[in-house]
Amino acid sequence: MAIHIPNAPKDQRDAVLRELHNLYITSPGMSTWVDVHLILDNFDRQFNMWRNVARFFARTEFVMMLDVDFAVCTDFRSQILRSPAIMDKLRRGDAALVIPAFEFVDQQDGRDADTFPTTKEVGIDF
Amino acid sequence: MIHLAKKTEHSRIVYEDIQLSSTSICNVGFCVLDRFVFGYVEFDEFKTDEALEPRHRLKFSRTGYDLVSFARYIWEDNVESTTMDIPRRWNSLASSKPIPPSEQPVMRTVSVVGILGALFGYGREQVTTRETSSPNLEGRVLIGFGIRRAGQATSDLMFFLLSVFLRILKTVVLSYAVVATVYTLLVPLVAFLPTHSSLRVGVDLLSSPSSKFSEIKSDTSLHSNVGPGKLRWAEEPVYWRPSPSFFFKTSPRRPLSMTEELFMNKAFSQSLQPTNIVPFYYRSSKSSEKQLSYEDISIATLVTRNRFVVLAKLARKYQGTHFSLSNVALTL
Asked: What is this structure's pTM?
């Protein structure tokens, strides 16, 4: 995770860092699986630069771009890693995988990720 | 001794019996370029009075080089005794009368040769004789010459060094031209090299167990040292191995070292500056245990500050099952 934090004002910066710290130590998933890289400057909306920092320091060969409000329903990671055909494409370096996504019409249905469909058949039925 | 013999013979013009003993002022300039000697001699006054004693020596009030011995030295193998041959193409000009206007350009050319001789040259002298101008004063002589130096002349150390220096200079200039041409041709090709491999350099560097990041920042990952003022990592050395180059097969095999600050500036040189990147401010505990496979999938996402909770859900829900690592860019 690359975090861009405005360097000034200092109070706001430190407040964000404290909040991040609390999040990191109170969320087991965070401290177990998330690397945090800081970007401290006063330039806003440098999205590509922030992505590049995260990608640059990613310790895996492959990176998936995901909107944070998306929930991952299936274990596509294992499926990809198990599939020689897909892995060959990725290793060649000239392929990008597009993961299909869906959206709830009623926003209330999207509150609990545990109720989300995990198969294509169920998803089509929505 | 200079004895200018006047006779026309093939392509050469030689002047004979010009007695220089009464010359009052003589400007001399000459230089050595490669195997050629360029120079000029200017006599303000001279005589052609045949009644004078022949073969008067030209007297130099020497401040440097003796023209006579120089001339003898240069033309030792080319001239007979005291006769100085002056090739026509180097504009010998001698006149017993005032120089006619038609010959002025020639004289100017000669002067240029002389100026070059003075600038580049071996020496420039103003020569005077003890005798003052005589009633037989008849005109002015300006001689420019360029002549091939005799093969044996290289025994003179200065000539030899000058010759070597000029050859080296020529070689350097030619080499520079060749290198510049090749480089100019190669630059557009290098620009098209893929940058993917260079990005992987950072991955190799940072995922290696010996990386300084794994040693230092895993210790500080859960400390509450918020505030970048306490971070001095930018001055620490970074060791990294360049990826193989498409063109230059002999790229260095051993790791390069530079400060972290320089490394970051190079890696993100296209970004707005100044910026301060602190990699691995927190380092995940699982990945520190080398449970990560190199061929795995990370997630990168953008998240605003008020979506921190969602981010925590994402990380918790898929821990160890779907994702080994989350890389999230966060905007505030």
From this structure: 0.46
